[in-house]
Amino acid sequence: MKPKHISAFVFSLLISGTAFAQRQGFIETITSQNKWVDSVYKKMSRRERIGQLFYVRAHTNKGHVYEDSVGKVIQDEHIGGLVFFQGGPVRHANLINNYQKLSKVPLLVAMDGEWGLGMRLDSAVSYPYQMTLGAIQDNNLIYKMGQMVAYDFKRLGLHINFAPDMDINNNPNNPVINYRSFGDNKYNVAQKGIFYAKGMQDAGVIVFAKHFPGHGDTNVDSHFDLPQLPFSRSRLDSLEEYPFKQAIAAGISGVMIAHLNIPALDSTKNLPSTLSRPIVTGLLKDSLGFKGIVASDAMEMKGVTKYFPKGEADLRAFLAGNDLIELSENSQLSAKLILKAIRKGKISKEEFEAKIKKLLAAKYWAGLDKYKPTSPYGIIGDINRPAAAELIQQLCDAAITVVKGDAATLRQNPLRKTAIISIGVDRPTVFETELSKWYPNSMIYLVGKNTPIAQIRQVLASLKKFDQTFVSIHDTRTRPQSKLDYSSDVKLLIAELAARPNVVTSVFANPYTIAGLPGIEKSAGLLVGYQKDDAMQRSAIKVITGVLKPTGKLPVTINTFFTTGMGMRF
After folding, report:
1. 145 in Cβ contact with 395 (< 8 Å)
2. Measured between alpha carbons, how far is 410 from 470 in angstroms, rounded to an integer?
């Protein structure tokens, strides 16, 4: 980003302190005196107050025995909320209603929905991944997506979205963040994260920027082990923490702490940041002045339980300054340890009371002082409404990125003999079927991920009779990883095709996959489509045929040929 753009963006952030002003300010709500909060708090026993810290796992795809076990935890442990995972929208809404009936104090219900309900649920719409959004230049579209996601959440009876991901993904081999990030430019990540959060929060959903102080430059997944950030304090302050600082300044409601070992911030051996008081309280709350809800990342993850089992992790997270303990391995045991710590004076009465009242105030902001069950009727139609499909297409249209070629190169000649080849698939794609309508003198080819070399040679031989070629590369896996699972022969085919004249290549996969396809840069035209979705394939066709002017810019650096901010406009 050029300096003049940076200064303009910094100015926009200076005036974004009113970013969440359309609704009563969340931070103002949870830091002000509140009669409902005081009344509820006063009626609670100490054990009931401790229960408010815990948010436990819930599903609707694990059967009634599992569902009943969660209901028992709600009744026995007086927990503060639930985090829903896989299942169906109607089943979720019905079960949420049932669980609310079991709770003395209404539950805050959360979900990880970085790209909407479809991240967890069947029969629910999925919006583009954050990496795709990172290519968009009109941030108002991202705000609108936030509004739509919030509508869907509230329609099911959900109040919290553990999103957006505000990690800067400057490590292409990151196994856990990657496409979930807006990119590797800290200004772009901050700006887009704020617009997305603003859209959701303005619409009444509590949001959490994650994973503080930054999980983007790791090559270890904290679900399975404890990653280390070996960087200096000045690097962390100027890079990793930057988006979180801007989000805090803009009034974001929540911040989620990552499970990372960060010697520059806390030198305690094998201590995850989640359990570090110097990081959670000293840095986030005191130095950065964050007054919202601080949530731990899932406490069942190996990045934290590996060194602190049997409730010790939850106790340390509580003492470190976390307000919300997510997905405890054993909430009952942990609650007992926390009660014992309170009795021993390991936390002041004032800090404990402020923590619980903050969580109750969040319930008040979410409208739980006047709780009403959600209606399950018509949910599927509501969350899959035409307006959602229209916005998804708008987002894809704004994201599609041309990194090589111009209008004439991409369009080619509609009357000449044209080959349209889809790679990585076993059935015709939207790209092929719809592009072939624009090129009547065309033939479609399919090349699978592991097509034998003999068949590949046959394809190459038959292409001699064509004047021009469109190639589309697809990652059909559920999550778009950094490297394609293609055979070496198929990858060599891509290189050979790209070296031919009049070849336009479209990549419907994680942009990092381009680095693993040497030779693809020789294509006459190259489009980056970021993900496999039909809407993105239609966006590419619009650009190729001149219906749409491309405006997307690469949110990450792929290699020396294709770097952050690249994107042709014509």
Report:
1. yes
2. 9
